[in-house]
Design a protein that fits this description.
The protein has 287 residues and is of the alpha+beta class. It folds into two domains: 4-138, MutM-like, N-terminal (N-terminal domain of MutM-like DNA repair proteins); 152-271, Orthogonal Bundle (Helicase, Ruva Protein, domain 3), CATH 1.10.8. It has helices spanning 4-18, 135-138, 152-155, 162-167, 177-187, 200-221, 226-236, 268-271; strands at residues 22-28, 49-55, 58-63, 66-71, 76-81, 96-103, 110-116, 124-128, 255-258, 263-266. Strands 1-6-7-5 form a four-stranded antiparallel β-sheet, with no helix packed on it. The protein has a four-stranded antiparallel β-sheet with strand order 2-3-4-8, with helices on one face. Mean pLDDT is 93; it is low at 281-287.
């Protein structure tokens, strides 16, 4: 799933290529991908892209005051093209969900496709007058990369696993499954530790880890073309997606906990005092 660093880099990538262009058309290959009806998607045609921003994991193209908002969900991606085919999209069940054609004055030949792999479709497109009209954006917690962010007050009273705390978009915006694994590894915290029971030193480690892991990932992602961001993300991971490999910090074997529709990876030596987390039903809430 694209998370804050990748979405931020995508926003910068589009800012360089789309701002100043006129939206020639927005073509849909799936009715289900469009989550709004007023304003209609056709109202974007003929308007100019004036900015591209990020809200959590949402992309926001400002189109002369209207907003084309995209959430890539778990398996979605954005594919830029400098030479789009003239053939229009047809409705279907393939990975191609939508196409945005842009015109820099020489014809609608550039733009981007929104694609989504797999059968579980979650990619969402909204056309709104204000980004806050998108429920997911209106409900977002604070962005951890803004000046003055600190995690301590958000932890108070949260009797929930710190892994779930980091992934809850209503508490902290922009962090997903991969970077929460990386943050907890850097902070030397068990993913099953209770957020409300972290001591002052653990809170400080978590605060530093959030800024460091996300900051480094954002710095490395920026400047890369959209086509390279996925591989760049995978190469940065120290524990996420690396079950069975050696931890780069201590050399222990990275372990995994598998749930019904997701999994997490961690280092037993670095994070749980050497104790394995078997599964959600039998593991203890290790601190």
């Amino acid at each position: 799933m694209p998370e804050m660093p990748e979405v931020d880099a995508l926003a910068a990538f589009l800012r360089e290529r789309a701002v100043g262009a006129v939206v020639a058309d927005v073509e849909l290959a799936s009715f289900a991908v469009l989550k709004t009806y007023d304003p209609p998607v056709s109202s974007l045609a003929g308007l100019q892209v004036t900015d591209v921003r990020r809200h959590g994991k949402f992309l926001d193209l400002d189109v002369d005051g209207l907003h084309l908002v995209v959430h890539l969900a778990k398996a979605g991606w954005l594919r830029w093209s400098d030479q789009l085919t003239d053939k229009r999209l047809k409705m279907g069940n393939g990975p191609l969900a939508a196409r945005v054609r842009l015109d820099h004055g020489d014809g609608p030949h550039v733009g981007f496709d929104l694609t989504e792999a797999g059968t579980r479709k979650g990619l969402a497109v909204y056309v709104v007058r204000d980004p806050q009209d998108v429920e997911g954006i209106a409900a977002l917690g604070p962005d951890p990369m803004v000046d003055g962010f600190t995690v301590a007050p958000l932890l108070e009273g949260r009797r929930m696993q710190v892994k779930r705390f980091l992934r809850d978009q209503k508490i902290v915006a922009g962090i997903g499954n991969a970077y929460s694994d990386e943050i907890l590894h850097a902070a030397r915290l068990s993913p099953f530790a209770l957020a409300s029971e972290l001591d002052a030193e653990q809170v400080e480690r978590l605060d530093v880890a959030i800024r460091t892991v996300l900051g480094e990932a954002m710095a490395e992602a920026h400047g890369k073309p959209a086509s390279e961001l996925k591989d760049g993300k995978r190469s940065r991971m120290r524990v996420h997606g690396r079950a069975g490999e050696a931890c780069p910090v201590c050399g222990d074997t990275v372990a995994e906990v598998v749930f019904a529709d997701s999994s997490l990876q961690y280092c037993p030596t670095c994070q749980t005092g050497g104790k394995p987390l078997k599964d959600r039903s039998t593991s203890k809430f290790l601190k």
